[in-house]
Amino acid sequence: MTMLRPDLAVIADKVAAGSRVLDIGCGEGELMEVLRTQKGCDARGMEIDPVLVERCVARGLSVVQGDADRDLVEYPDKAFDYAILSQTLQTAARPDRMLDELLRVGRQAFVSFPNFAQWRMRAALAFRGRMPVTRYLPVSWYETQNIHNVTIDDFRELIAKLGVTCENAWFFSGQRQIGPLWANLRAEYAVFELSR
Amino acid sequence: MATLSASRALTFAAPLPLDSGQTLEGVQIAYETYGELAADKSNAMLVTHALTGDQYLASTHPITGKPGWWERMVGPGKPIDTSRYYVICANVIGSCMGSTGPASIAPDGQPYAMRFPVITIRDMVRGLVGLLDGMGIERLHAIVGGSMGGMQALSLAANWPDRAERVLVIASTSRHSAQNIAFHELGRQAIMADPNWQDGDYYASGASPDAGLAVARMAAHITYLSEDGLTDKFGRNLQDRDTKSFGFDADFQVESYLRYQGSGFTRRFDANSYLYITRAMDYFDLAEEHGGRLANAFAGSQARFCLVSFDSDWLYPTAESRHVVHALNAAGAAVSFVELSAPYGHDSFLLDVSALDRVVKGFVE
């Protein structure tokens, strides 16, 4: 069995067997593969990098090379039981609109993202006066695709404003899941299960 | 020009109904096969050919003596592995390598010439389905086609949705654009302007419109290549000379190359077939056949689809593949799509692009 990244493992665990899933930013299709083989899901993917798409297709996955900002509109309403956006929200041109789209094409959504308010980030800014470069945000400010860095509290505020319900949330530090206490300070990344 | 073929052929007992409302009697489909058909017939794949292609997919062409047109992709251990799959490739109707076309003899004993009915891509696929019926193959493991072959694959998926489990469409489109039609019209006018065309009745005359057909091929050939590809291959290099001739010989290598492509083509292709097949491509609009909405063409399809485009293909650019992918998404079909980077333009699907090999192999298995 493939060892999934912890955020993906939580999602794989929560997705109902046999459901229809769209994995946006599916990378090499690790999550899709697990959903297909272990959960009998009808998993579809979208990925912007053609090299990763080619690898997905070569392993027999249905993945479309596309840009979530532009191509999600082509899917009909509620085409999927779950729309999954892992570590991609912060790259969207308009994360608010993307969340709307996720919950249009999916009955539910899973969204994971790196937390920009984790204490190391804060320290980098507060004490060094520099944009943070960490293991989960490893790219310098001038070349990163993360144009909309977000904190857990920012995200909670946005979904409330959008009228989106948070069904569940999980927080992680490294490979370890941590409790919700002071998550905005402690968590390196988070997974939210959303519905509307 | 030749109408003879060394291939096996199936002759239909019943007339073939056509989109025009006409029917075609005694249709013959010439085909080649590679590999062994499994006892349960579950390993059959159909590869559909492009405008000027034929059934010599992975075997030597009887006229040119050149290797099959997709030998790099099809064969034992190749991405389309003939040690596992039974691969069928048939000459489409309207063509000239053994299947019924304008050069074939009509029931009155004379060649059809321009009396041959105008056919469509769907008519070509009707012929292929007839062949599969004749072979007792209910369901293909996959249908694979590039360019016009991709149109046939899409047409099969839309009109005979139970006949293929996998549909692989490479460098193709769901409709011909104005620019596509314009280039084809240029080719057709070149043929018809050749006095040897004789309103299409040239078969018994001993002369055929080779000059016109060569010009048609030259124009089309430019659309199959990219500007960068042409520049890399030829630049402004002169052909076998040090200085310009101040005349109209093929001074430039690119001129010489196109003339060679044009004249070589006339030895293996019938000019009337070129008229009919380009017409069929121009008429192709899969959405129009399905109430104007492309997604309707794929409603309820259980097949898995894969579309591949090339970034340097300006004949059927990526936007055309994306258009099909969006329709498949809207129809809820299982679809993969990737735009591959290759320098060779539309012809990339026939050339050495290793990423394509991996995608084809991964998708069909």
Automatic annotation (TrEMBL), chain A:
What is the name attached to this protein's record? Answer: Methionine biosynthesis protein MetW
Q: Which InterPro entries match?
A: Methionine_synth_MetW, SAM-dependent_MTases_sf
* Phylogenetic classification of the source organism: Bacteria, Pseudomonadati, Pseudomonadota, Alphaproteobacteria, Sphingomonadales
> What is the superkingdom listed in this entry's lineage?
Bacteria
Which NCBIfam families does the record associate with it? metW
Species name? Tsuneonella flava
The record's section on Gene3D superfamilies has: Vaccinia Virus protein VP39
Pfam families in the record: MetW (PF07021)
